[in-house]
Amino acid sequence: MKNNKTLTTIEIKKNKVKINAYRILNKQIISIFEHEIEAKPNTSFLSDNGVVKQSSAVELKRELANILKTIRKNESGFDENQIFMVVPSATYSYATKKIQIPTSENPILANKELIQDYLKKFTKKEQLENSAYHLEVEMLQVKIDGVKQEDENFLVGGKDIEIIASVKSIYKKVYESHKMVVEKTGENIVKYLTNLEALFNSIERAGKEENDIVVVDWKEDKVEAGLFKNGAFVEYASIPHGMNYIIEKLSNEFNLSTEMSQNYLYNNINFESENILKSVFLKFSNSLGSKALTGEQIQTIVKKAVKNSYKEIKEEFVTKNKIDFYVTPVFNFGLIQEIPNGLSLLTSNKSSSDYFNKTKIIGALKNAEHFESYGLISKFVNRVITADIKNIQRNIQNKPVNYQFSFSDDVIGQNKASSHLYLKNDGILIDKVEA
């Protein structure tokens, strides 16, 4: 892909829409624009299965049109603005299918182009007859008269032609509703990818295409996960216990407001700290009397709730796929990454297979908010990170900080002996004292 294009990603989530734009420079993806559209209070953009609500479509189209117009104006020196779209994984399915090409009595001369042409016809026919939209149909194996074709550039005659293909699909109404919102702005979408596939693609890990990997996305209303085998998204799972469930547990346990619980969860406590846990972090009075909470009390309830949800989502795969989570890497994304040292809530074992994604995105104001977009773009621009580029990134980190292209600090590896409970807002929040 030439470097004279702007690459824009759009992702319609339940309560917000993310629009990010990138350029490719020296084989690196660089963020140049980011914007979010928030849903109005007590409303949402999507149904539970990911279809864009009709009540939201008109307003979304108007706002998206203005934003895309701004991107085109700002990047007017570039040939075109290509649009890529992240779609929800909730209705995703993966299947392998055996497809037989009808033949006559006379042999057919078959090659890769013939097979791909037939797969296009097969895809079109299936989508007309079913309620699914095929995001991708990929040829896995071809047999001609019972002989497996090992050479990709085969040219073989035969009467019996059999194709084994992988089919990745989502509910057709999900695809159509997302497509309609964007195309009503006058733009065309180049490629679609589910959010969990995009997150998987954002992981920079040697050998990830040859091994099992689980991707977990912690959202407000649910936790969803995808199992990837040899790079293919083969199984989806979700549980209805997202971060709002954790916040509710904290609020109910200590009779706190939802806002107060959110502030302590995301802003004020380093969950890896081993110091001053007995210190009082919150004093307040309510109808039940006076109360004081220590850092340890808050940590205990949050850790228990997070670990219960984490165990539940893992168990969704154990029975079906016999996954061994002692050796299978699990990469966690989403709201869990906004908790200071949130990884320590998932495991206390430093040699465990539980990870946060550490990919750095140049130009991103909030690194973790770009993982879906970055993963989608990296899949379709044929980007390969070489050792030389990684060395350049390491050298950049040793230079004075450029705040336009800033990198987030890694606090997980800090010295625990000198670690304090982390107060990002430079103070302790005190709930309102009732008279």
pLDDT average, as an integer? 82
Number of domains: 3
Q: What is the beta-strand fraction? A: 25-35%
Shape: globular
Helical stretch tally: 10
Describe this structure in a few short sentences.
The protein has about 425 residues and is α+β, with helices and mostly antiparallel strands.
Task: Report on this structure.
With 435 residues, the chain is α+β, with helices and mostly antiparallel strands. It has 3 domains: 5-90 and 174-206 and 358-405, ATPase, nucleotide binding domain (Nucleotidyltransferase, domain 5, 2-Layer Sandwich), CATH 3.30.420.40; 93-169, Dna Ligase, domain 1; 207-356 and 410-435, Nucleotidyltransferase, domain 5, CATH 3.30.420. It is 31% helix and 30% strand. The strands form 5 sheets. It has a 5-stranded mixed beta sheet, sandwiched between helices. The chain has a 5-stranded mixed beta sheet with strand order 14-13-12-17-18, sandwiched between helices. A 4-stranded antiparallel beta sheet has the order 5-10-7-8. It is globular.
Q: What labels would you give this structure?
A:
single chain; 435 residues; alpha+beta; Nucleotidyltransferase, domain 5; Dna Ligase, domain 1; 3 domains; five-stranded mixed sheet; globular
How is the topology of this model organized?
Blueprint: E1 5-12, E2 16-25, E3 28-38, H1 54-74, E4 80-87, E5 93-101, E6 108-111, H2 112-129, E7 132-144, E8 147-148, E9 155-158, E10 161-171, H3 172-183, E11 189-194, H4 195-202, E12 212-218, E13 223-229, E14 232-239, H5 243-254, H6 258-268, E15 280-286, E16 289-294, H7 295-321, E17 330-334, H8 343-346, E18 354-356, H9 371-380, H10 387-397
Parallel strand pairs: 1-4, 4-11, 12-17, 17-18
Antiparallel strand pairs: 1-2, 2-3, 5-10, 6-9, 7-8, 7-10, 12-13, 13-14, 15-16
